[in-house]
Amino acid sequence: MKRPALWLLGVPLLVVVMAAPLARAMIAAHATPRLQVPQGWPAPRYDFAGNPVTAAGFALGRRLFYDPILSRDGSVACGSCHQQFAAFAHLDHRVSHGIGGVNGKRNTPGLFNLAWQPDLMWDGSVHHLEMQPVAPMSNPVEMGGSLALAVDKLRRDARYPELFARAFGSPGVDSQRLLRALAQFTGTLVSADSRYDRYVQGREAFTPQEHEGLDLFRQHCAACHREPLFSDFSYRNNGLDAAPRDAGRAVISGRAEDQGRFRVPSLRNVALTAPYMHDGRYETLEQVLDHYAAGIQPSPTLDPLLAHGVPLTAGEREALLAFLDTLSDENFIHDRRFAETHD
Ligand code: HEC
Ligand code: HEC
Questions:
Q1: Could you tell me which of 153, 139, 136 has the C-alpha nearest to residue 80?
Q2: Summary mean pLDDT of the chain
Q3: Ligand 2 within 6 A of 306 CB?
Q4: Residue with the nearest Cα to atom 34 of ligand 2?
Q5: pLDDT tens digits for 42-62?
Q6: Distance between CA 95 and CA 22 in Å, rounded?
């Protein structure tokens, strides 16, 4: 008699376990995200006070993000290069791949926690989240058009004028509204629910190997990839090239000491965003660790922290890789509020 009774007890439990994620996904699809500052994080840099997130504004931003209407010939959307399943990076693309199939020169970064970034882009060339979309829209090898062209197309579209009126409370399609709607979407892409986060909040345990990986990370990597955002947002040369082909930060600052320096990228979701580095030169995290162990190229601007590389034993490598895996936020990449909809 005992066995069937125990088995019966398991049935409702199983139903609850299976229904919980489903219920969350169903609520999520229709909810409007608010920018909530996760526990222990600094204050965000982007201030939504000047651009309050509304249901209609967020929905408009999401629609625009996935709509190729913003490109010159209607072939490329923001979402073509920034894919949700890759934490909004471009999986398997070394450098950006835009209009007419032409390649750009830099790797597409993941998009999350942008409201906390002081500057945007690998070289920090954009200072304000609302201004960022101007760059891909007018880049001849990305979307190939311009802000004015996009606004013009949206004004003549059958549906957008009404969606803009609903989002901003009065009729009118203009560039400021276009940029603000996009920022309501990109600025609320918060990723803070990885296993690492649950570990830090005491809600989940790490394996001994993941613990060891975290210790190694704090010892060798966290000075630049600083918790909790996993970047200190400084510009540094991590030794990729003795003579960099892309001057990086120096393109913006014009200063010799910025040659080959790039923004320290966040390592959140890093297992999902291959390939790696500003030019996408490494396909795997193993290759990245090989670089730090034995591939550091000396140059006048090499960061002193990496002068001797980061040699690791085989066991330490495995531990560090296991830790990096805990930074993947499965709820973020499956969050239906951020997915393309066809309503
Ligand atoms: C053709 C591919 C492509 C398209 C289309 C594209 N992007 Fe990007 N995006 C990139 C690349 C590549 C970078 C990095 C560029 C650099 O640093 O020089 C980038 C950078 C960004 C950043 C800065 C991220 C950071 O961490 O600094 C944001 C935000 C962004 N894109 C949003 C958008 C939006 C919004 C659109 C649509 C209006 C868009 N992108 C269209 C490839 C693309
Ligand atoms: C001195 C600062 C510094 C240290 C220390 C450092 N990094 Fe980096 N890391 C960078 C910079 C800067 C980049 C971007 C370089 C580029 O693309 O030109 C980067 C890029 C990366 C990338 C690629 C991410 C992406 O999205 O393309 C990974 C992965 C990475 N680092 C992991 C590590 C690990 C693991 C350690 C410790 C073993 C470490 N880093 C130590 C500065 C540092």
A1: 136
A2: 90
A3: yes
A4: 221
A5: 999 998 999 999 999 999 999
A6: 36
Ligand 2 mutation pick, 123, 224, 235, max ligand atoms within 8 A of CB: 224
**Residue nearest (by alpha carbon) to ligand 1 atom 36:** 78
Which residues make Cβ contacts (< 8 Å) with residue 340, sequence separation at least 6? 62, 66, 79
Q: State residue 9's pLDDT score.
A: 43
pLDDT of residue 28: 55
End-to-end CA distance of the chain: 53
Is residue 299 a contact partner of residue 238, using CB atoms and an 8 Å limit?
no
pLDDT tens, position by position, 126-152:
999 999 998 899 888 889 889 999 999
Of all protein residues, the one whose alpha carbon is nearest to atom 11 of ligand 2 is: 264
Reply yes or no on whether the pLDDT at 176 is more than 70: yes
Query: Does 88 sit in the ligand 2 pocket, CB within 6 Å?
Result: no
Beta carbon of 179 within 6 Å of any ligand 1 atom: no
How many beta carbons lie within 10 A of that of residue 16, not counting itself?
Answer: 10
| pLDDT level of residue 7 (50, 70, 90 thresholds) | very low
Q: Are 40 and 59 in contact (CB under 8 A)?
A: no
Distance (Å) from CA 206 to ligand 1 centroid: 34
d(CA 50, CA 44): 14
Predicted local confidence at residue 6, as pLDDT:
43
